[in-house]
Amino acid sequence: MSTPAPSGAMDPPSEGVYERIRRGIVEGHYPPGSRLVEQRLAEELDVSRTPVREAVRRLESEGLVVVARNRGAVVRPLDEADISDLYEVRARLEAYAAELAALRAEPSDIADLRRDAEGFAELAGRDDGGGGPRSLDQVRRLDETNARFHSTLHMASRHNRIRPLIAAAVDAPLVFRALQRFEPSELNRSALFHELIADAVAAGSGARAGRLMTEHVLQGRDALLSRLADAGGVADLFRRGA
User: For residue 111, is it within any domain?
Assistant: First the structure.
């Protein structure tokens, strides 16, 4: 979800600007409620205002940015109720995708799902909590591997209309911050859920896959809300270096 697009001579200039602003939002450089001023962003990224404007519009269409009266474009504000609502919707949609994947997945999908689950488990297993806070690079790898597992599952559902709905319900900055703050035991629990979901899909057990996915998403919600209470609010949760 936060993986930067590969660069290349054929990429439009606005694509790189979009990816840099999006990454800034996901990683907390632009926290919820902060203004995205075109001129300031253009100067910061050393580009004209046109690709910045295009990037902000694209981010607005994804739900990461809203246009507020008298404030212009701002990173979507969040409160505890917003977070709960997002995770509730996501749990229901992802559970349905898991149910469908158990019925529709091809052998190659199952192989990919197991590979992605193992990749996340390997990263989680390296995190023993003894080295202090996770580095930005560590969190990026966790985020990318986690997103890959879920994306593989969504593709295996063979339901083209549900994928954009799930994308709208997944708040990438929240997922990134959760992975940044998870205890090693919580990362290993997520890894276990991935493996159990992959097993249920491989067995063709839609009901079990759906139940596991629901529990997986809602446990992530509960852990994030616990961190939110400890941090004293969304602003502190997204504070740089927190």
Answer: yes
Indicate the pairing of strand 65-68 with strand 72-75. Answer: antiparallel
Same domain membership, residue 222 and residue 109: yes
Tell me how far apart the alpha carbons of residues 159 and 97 are, in angstroms, rounded to a whole number: 8
- Helix or strand holding residue 144 (H, E): helix 136-156
Residue 8: how many CB atoms within 10 A of its CB? 7
The pair of structure tokens assigned to 67 is 């246009």
Q: Which of 156, 135, 154, 134 is nearest to 146 (CA)?
A: 154
SS3 67: strand
Task: Count structural domains, the chain.
Answer: 2
Rg of the chain's alpha carbons, rounded to an integer? 18
- Which domain-ending residue is among 32, 51, 75? 75
| Joined tokens for residue 32 | 């919820």
3-state secondary structure of 132: coil
For 54, how many CA atoms within 13 A lie in the half-sphere containing its CB?
12
The whole-angstrom separation of Cα 213 and Cα 194 is: 8
CB under 8 Å to 182, separation ≥6 — which residues? 190, 223
pLDDT tops 70 at residue 132: no
Overall average pLDDT of the 139-163 stretch? 96
Average pLDDT of the segment spanning 30-49:
93
| Domain match, 64 and 36 both | yes
Return the SS3 of 66.
strand
Q: What is the model's pLDDT at position 10?
A: 37
Look at residue 11 in the predicted model and tell me its pLDDT. 43
